[in-house]
């Protein structure tokens, strides 16, 4: 919720506030690639826009995903260490009637931890790819604007890098997430179903709703 509200606040701040406090804007080349658009009459606005609109979200997302990935990786390792030992011991015993009901719960908890770790890895790799594709343009514009705007081949290659940043997210998700691949295959083959678990007579039943 906080991330959604922050996106709204940044969008409103960049598109409304600069033009409202400076009696509108004018049409001109918009950084970094010089497309025609509305430019605010605040000299400091482009720098603030790049800093708050690009660097802060990318770095914030990277920090959040790194912390999430490390936290879930450690939690997954601890869960596997605690739960696989009793499971192996139970399997080695001939009479496992008492433990027969515990093993599915153990496996379920391990599977949930593994899924969280995989999801955090997908988010981390996606954020890293986003930073690789989108940060070089902004860093170059801030560090050496004169060299950037006079070097047309550099602008072309950085524009290609920006397009790759937009287009490769589905490829990353397909490569790193089995659930995403399965869902995409079901969607493409027309077998997509929404599964809703509910309770019937004390037993858990899964119903498929097309």
From TrEMBL:
Protein known as: G-protein coupled receptors family 1 profile domain-containing protein
Highest taxon in the source lineage: Eukaryota
Compartmental location: Cell membrane
Protein keywords: Cell membrane, G-protein coupled receptor, Membrane, Receptor, Transducer, Transmembrane, Transmembrane helix
SUPFAM superfamilies: Family A G protein-coupled receptor-like
Transmembrane parts of this sequence: 48-74, 118-137, 157-176
Gene Ontology molecular function, alphabetical: G protein-coupled receptor activity
Species the sequence originates in: Ramazzottius varieornatus
Keyword Mitochondrion: no
Membrane topology classification: Multi-pass membrane protein
GO cellular component term of the entry, any: plasma membrane
Predominant place of localization: membrane
């Amino acid at each position: 919720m906080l991330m959604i509200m922050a996106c709204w606040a940044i969008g409103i701040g960049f598109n409304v506030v600069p033009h409202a406090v400076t009696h509108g804007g004018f049409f001109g080349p918009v950084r970094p690639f010089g497309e025609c658009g509305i430019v605010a009459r605040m000299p400091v606005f482009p720098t603030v826009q790049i800093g708050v609109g690009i660097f802060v979200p990318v770095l914030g997302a990277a920090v959040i995903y790194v912390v999430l990935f490390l936290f879930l990786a450690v939690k997954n390792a601890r869960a596997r260490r605690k739960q696989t030992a009793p499971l192996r011991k139970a399997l080695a015993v001939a009479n496992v009637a008492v433990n027969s009901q515990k093993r599915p719960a153990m496996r379920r908890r391990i599977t949930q931890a593994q899924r969280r770790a995989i999801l955090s890895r997908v988010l981390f790799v996606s954020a890293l790819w986003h930073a690789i594709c989108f940060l070089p343009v902004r860093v170059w514009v801030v560090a050496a604007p004169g060299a950037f705007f006079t070097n047309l081949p550099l602008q072309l290659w950085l524009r290609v890098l920006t397009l790759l940043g937009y287009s490769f997210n589905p490829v990353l998700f397909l490569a790193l997430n089995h659930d995403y691949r399965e869902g995409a295959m079901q969607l493409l083959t027309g077998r997509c179903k929404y599964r809703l678990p509910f309770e019937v007579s004390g037993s858990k039943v899964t119903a498929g709703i097309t």
